[in-house]
Request: fold
Amino acid sequence: MAKVIKKGALPVFVARNTCRDCRSEVEYTRADVEGDQREGNYVRCPVCKALIAESTLKWKAKS
Reply:
């Protein structure tokens, strides 16, 4: 069994996008992504609750 000498941390991936309805700039993590068969994967704008398609999000590791 491997022994942990120093515990690291997994990177947090975030995406930024602008809501097409209210023009708010928003940042999301993968935990915020929802999905269903009809709408596909999406996140909800926290301001106006509009759906932002997950495929338009650009994921980057947060530093």
User: Anything to note?
Assistant: The mean pLDDT is 85.
